[in-house]
Amino acid sequence: MSGSRLRLWWTALAGVLAAVLLISGCGSPPPDSPKPTEAKVAFEPGDGAAEVNPAAPVRATVDRGRFTSVALTNADGKQVAGELSPDGRSWRATEALGYGKTYTWSGQAISDDGKLVPVRGSFTTLKPKQTIRATINPTDNAVVGIAMPISIKFDKPVQDKAAIQRALTVRTSVPVEGAWAWLSDRQVDWRPKEYWPAHTHVSVLAKLYGLAYGGGSYGLADLSTEFDIGRAQIVKAAVGTHRMVVIRDGREVANYAASYGEEYDPGRNTPNGTFIIMEKKPVEIMDNPRYGYHDVRKTWAARFSNHGEFIHENQENAAALGKVNNSHGCINLSAADAKEYYDSALIGDPVEVTGSASSMPPQYDVYDWLLTWDQWKAKSAI
């Protein structure tokens, strides 16, 4: 083939290829038209879920849309309190649910392109074998002494003490070292390592509702309290001195003539130990069948042990006050001194008894301060 013919052939081929490319480019099909997008509703817990913990988070969300209405209703038709987000794309329950109940979703969502989607679904919460009630002390707004423990008591024994302890929080207005200790399978207390600093504000939260206690038992309700520690007042009860001294904020404010328990009868000793004022009564009726007295009326009584010890008036024993220890274990004061001390005392004030022939075993409620710090920490479940 001559050179001129070859050039003509390549020129023709190039023209054909260009035409094919032009046709191909101009003939591309148009892009697909946008397809409608449907709003997608999701639930937490999921639709049909069973054995749901009633304290777990409950939410409904919508993707590619927003809720125009949404409600969660129990079997009695009562709506659960909830909150819709500002953009309308999520809703959450703002109250805990009940045990052993069925909840149903209802409402409507609208997709971003205007298509309506119904909100439908349901779930069931767990039904415990039993629920266990708890109480907390001190109660809200109390003002208590510097030895006051925080005490949570359960109306039935609990098994999973570690889980319960992890649900307990103590916050203080100043740093305070302290720890929880299980005094029985129905009681857990928190006490500071040393006495509370005066005027500390304390907040306690126990997230117990929905908490598994073990053996099919669950917490009945959350607990909380806020209270204050008052001034720092300590009773120094040195048995051998026949005096009871009151120290307030580091200064001696009272020094009373007293009579303690009979020293030579262990059953009548005022025992050694650090106790707290547990209750105060203007009149206390006392009985002790072992020693032959019944319905004895004493005034200005401040209990510091469930073994039976009080600080109280005993005007009938005036001759012994400041001289002889002859009570049945209580700290006897004159009527005037007992009234003055009674008026000054707070629940939770420490009473430090020393110099006695016997000591109190750590078994009577409240015995928190009869344990060393190491013994106390050993009673923690975690």
UniProtKB/TrEMBL annotation:
Domain of life, source organism: Bacteria
PROSITE patterns in UniProt: LD_TPASE (PS52029), PROKAR_LIPOPROTEIN (PS51257)
Alphabetic keyword roster: Acyltransferase, Cell shape, Cell wall biogenesis/degradation, Peptidoglycan synthesis, Transferase
L,D-TPase catalytic domain: residues covered: 233-354
Keyword Signal set for record: no
Pathway connected to this protein: Cell wall biogenesis; peptidoglycan biosynthesis
InterPro entries: Big_10, LD-transpeptidase, LD_TPept_cat_dom, Transpep_catalytic_dom
Location of the active site: 312, 330
SUPFAM superfamilies in the cross-refs: L,D-transpeptidase catalytic domain-like
A Pfam family matched in the record: Big_10
Designated name of the protein: Ig-like domain-containing protein
Native organism: Saccharopolyspora thermophila
